[in-house]
Every structure is written in C-alpha cells, then in structure tokens.
Amino acid sequence: MNLRLIFTACVVVQTVMTTAFAAVEARPNILFCIADDASMVSFGAYGGTVVETPAFDRLAEEGALFRNAYNCNPKCSPARACLVTGRYTWQLEEACNHNSAFPDKFKWYPHLLKDAGFYVGFTGKGWAPGEYSGEDNPAGKAYNDNLLTPPHKGISDKDYAANFEVFLDQKPADTPFCFWLGTHEPHRGYAKGTLWKKEGMKLEDAIVPPFFPDNEMIRSDLLDYAAEVKWFDRHLGLAIQALEERGLLENTLIIATSDHGMPFPRVKSQMYEEAFHIPMVAYWKGVIQPGRVINDFVGFPDVAPTFMTVAGMEPHEQMTGKSFLDLLRSTQSGWIDPTRDHVLLGRERTDKTRPNDVGYPVRAIRTKEFLYVHNIKPERWPCGNPEMGLKDTDNSPTKSYLTDLMPGDEEYPYYELSFGLRREEELYQIQDDPHCMSNLAANPEYAALKAKLRKQMEAELTAQKDPRMFGQGDVFDNYPRGKNRSKQKKK
Fold first, then answer.
1. Per-domain residue ranges for the chain?
2. In CA terms, which of 78, 284, 339, 408 is 20 to 30 Å from 453?
3. What is the 8-class DSSP label of residue 441?
C-alpha cells in the first residue's frame, strides 16, 4: 500500500514538473519597441503619408493595430514609469514627475520577468531621465556597446538593432527573452533641414496642424521630425529581421509604440489629443489574427500586466493596470470589451520652469467621443513662465517662431494656443475636433455632460487614491528632483 502511494505521488510530481517545464518552454519571447516623441499620425498604418513606415505597417498587417492606445502621462520619464510598473501616474509618488527619483518600493516588469527565468535587456533609451537605485535600468541590463556613424549629429550613435543581435546571441538556448528596444529618435535635437532633404522629401510633403502657422520654417521643422520617425522604423525593421534570421519571430510577441506625441508646442507634455494618443501595434504569430483593428481603450499601465500574463504569471499585486491579453487572443475587430470605453490621464511637474519649481497639475478623461480636461491650477502658465523660457516645450524653430510673435500680430493667436493661460475646464468633441481647437466647456448645452465626465473621473481617481482627490496634491510639487540623471548616455 505504501509503495503504491509512493508510486502515485511520484507520478503526480513528475506530471506537475513536466507541465511546469512545458509551460516555461512555451512562454513566448517579448520584444517591446518604443520611439521617443513619435505621434500616432506619423505612421502609415494610421494613414500617415509624410514618411513611409514599412516595419510598423507590416506588424499592423500581420498583427493587430490599436486605435485607442494612450500613455497616461505625456512626458518621457513619467510615461515610461507607467509602462514598467503597470501603475497610473498619480500612483507613482516621485516617479509621477519628470526627471525625478524612482522610489525603490515599486516593482518593474523586466526585473520581475528576469526573476521568473527570462533573459532581459534593453538598448537605447529605457526609463529616463531620472535617478534609480541599482545597477540596471528599470528596463533591464543595458546593451549599448555597438555604435554607428549617424547620418547627422542629431541622431544617436547607438546601433539599436546591432545591440539587439548581441543580446540574442548571448541568450542561453531555450530561455525566453524580454527585450526593450528604445530609440532616442525622433526626440530633438535635429540637424535643421538636413536629413529630410537626404531622404528626398519636399516642403510640400509636410502636414501642418491647424494650431501652427503654415510657413517654410515650420514645414522644415516638421520634416526634420518626420525623417527621424523613419529612423525608428528602420531599426524596428532590422530587429524583426534579426528575429527571422534566428528562427525566433514565430514565438515572439512584439509591441511597438511611442512614449507620447511629437516634440512640438501644444503636443509633447500638454494635455491635448496628439500628446497622449499614441501609436501601438502588436504582433504574435498564431495568437493574434492578422489584420485586426482593436478600438478598445488601452493605456500604458496595462502593458506590464499584459506581459506578466503572456509569461504565464499573475500580474504583481502593485500593478493597477489591466492585462489586454484577452484582446490579443480575440478573433474580433472593433470594440471587444465593453468595459474598455475610456481612459484616465494626468500630469504633474515636468521641467523646471516656474518659481519654486511647481508643476502644472492636470487630470483628464477620454471617452469614445469626448476629452474632458481639468486644469487644477489654471492660474499657472501651462508651459512654464514666459520669463523662465517656457521650458515645458522643447526648444525648436517652431517654438522660436511662435515666441517671436507679439500681441497685435496677425498670427499672435497661434502663440496663445500653445503658451497662453487656460481655463480651468476644457471639453472637446474629438471626432469633430481632433486637434482640440474649440473648447465646449463654457457651452450650456454641454454642462450636464461636463459634470457627468468630471464626476466619473473623480470617482475613479478617488478609488485609485490619487493624492489630488484628498487635498494632498502639493506633495507632487514638494518631491525632490533626481540629483543625477540615469546612467544612460543622452542623445
């Protein structure tokens, strides 16, 4: 009897071990590719025509294109902090602010996957800028030794694709990997009027948004940016090629995206549609049916729990985002999960550009039709004080053109659109007004809708323990700046 029990127990243990090992072997690889400051409309899959983006578009054709992906915070390090933690920006303490310190208490998905047996690394820009503890970036161990001669000084000399190949070749056999490929492009600076001319582009190719004047200087600046979007896409294509050459593509989930919109006035770091509505595509052969288009709202806090569930793990208890693995596995296109009908967005302190280094706090909710924005401190300048350089907007020819305008100039309203004081509440009907040009918040016809959206937003923020909902929002202005930037080489 005892021998029979022992034999049965051994069989059970062997079955469990075999199942566990099979699960480990079946875990897919994960390649996460992220551009730095690339707008959704710049990619061909979304109808972009200024530059060709064949690698991104291929992933859309052979995988799934997300129509409503949002970043939660439209600035580099806080957006990336949401990615690596799976938390909303107002839940990240110091890491909600730009160029700050990352609290040690938070877990980062690349490190969790490493502990679970994944081979983990990154190249280019991981979580940055800011200060973090430990040797490895929140995105993983750095692979940045391979360099190239860039086409101009505005592009990083890091050979992202070559560094990815080194990583793949060092990976132990039969070990799944998780890699973060983060280009520094199309972040500024640019070699003015250089690369787009080499690419054969013309001034008439530029598409000028309605919140800018239309002139040669601004068109050239937009083309400088667009040419660097192409640089990101080129390295994305080379990374896909590296996987194909090694027979790894079929068992790799690829997600390609950008941290926020283009580095221009009224976009990057601002709370309008083009700042936080980001490109996102997912490819996973045999799991994601080709050519699907997903309308459901997903956000950066959802990425980390998705990767955890893809790896066969439960999301870490700190993660407040929701895995969208079910969306990837679905055979449907369009709207799939009725609960994914909106996202919450926000920002706090970004660059040092106001007296006492205070921020410009904002909370917002984006639904299928509307964007509601609550500017919590409307008496503050949204892009920073003019006398301090409006540093919440990157320096550029476009910024210089706008700041040279004077009251009374015919084009001065363009300056006000980018840098002027804003009302406490803003409301935009996005389908009719995708550039957020007509604020409906003061229109009595929309008073009930505005109140409903604010109530919904504040109820969810309260449930998520946003300090702003408890009269404790000044904590974000009082956090110390990160004394040292991360250990990465800046572009």
1. 27-337, 343-485
2. 78
3. T
CA distance 402 to 417: 10
* Cα-Cα end-to-end distance for the chain: 71
Strands 277-278 and 64-70: antiparallel
Q: 126 Cβ partners below 8 Å, 6+ apart?
A: 80, 137, 138, 139, 140, 142, 180, 182, 486, 488
Strands (E), 58-176: 64-70, 100-101, 119-124, 130-131
CA 322 to each of CA 92, 310, 340, 443, 463: distance values in angstroms, whole numbers, following the listed order: 17, 13, 10, 35, 15
pLDDT greater than 50 at residue 4: no
CA pair distance 225, 219, nearest whole angstrom: 10
8 Å CB contact between 242 and 164: yes
E strands, 300-393, in order: 342-347, 362-367, 370-375
Spatial contact of 436 and 426, defined as CB atoms under 8 Å apart? yes
The runs of H, that is alpha helices, within 382-480 are 397-403, 412-419, 447-463, 475-478
- Interatomic CA distance for residues 412 and 86, integer angstroms: 41
Residue count of the chain, please give it: 491
The answer to whether residue 124 scores a pLDDT higher than 90 is: yes
Q: Give the integer Cα–Cα distance in Å for 368 and 431.
A: 9
How many whole angstroms separate alpha carbon 240 and alpha carbon 242? 5
Q: What is the pLDDT of residue 306?
A: 99
Flag whether pLDDT at 90 surpasses 90. yes
CA 101 – CA 466 distance, rounded (Å): 19
The angle, 0 to 180 degrees and rounded to 10, between the axes of the packed helices 76-85 and 303-310 is 30
CATH code, residues 27-337:
3.40.720.10
Which residue, chain included where needed, has tokens 């449907």?
332
Give the number of other Cβ atoms within 10 Å of residue 234's Cβ: 17
Q: Quickly count helices (H) and strands (E) in the chain.
A: 14, 14
- pLDDT of 18 reads 32
Give the residue carrying structure tokens 């009082």.
478
Distance, CA of 33 to CA of 179 (rounded, Å): 8
Segment 328-335 long-range contacts (CB within 8 Å, at least 24 positions apart): 328/64, 328/253, 328/282, 328/284, 328/287, 328/288, 329/287, 329/288, 330/292, 331/289, 332/292, 333/292, 333/293, 333/294, 333/295, 334/293, 334/294, 334/295, 335/295, 335/296
Report pLDDT digits (tens) over 445-477.
999 999 999 999 999 999 999 999 999 999 999
CB neighbour list of residue 173: distance below 8 Å, 6 or more residues apart: none
Structural tokens at position 130: 């800011």
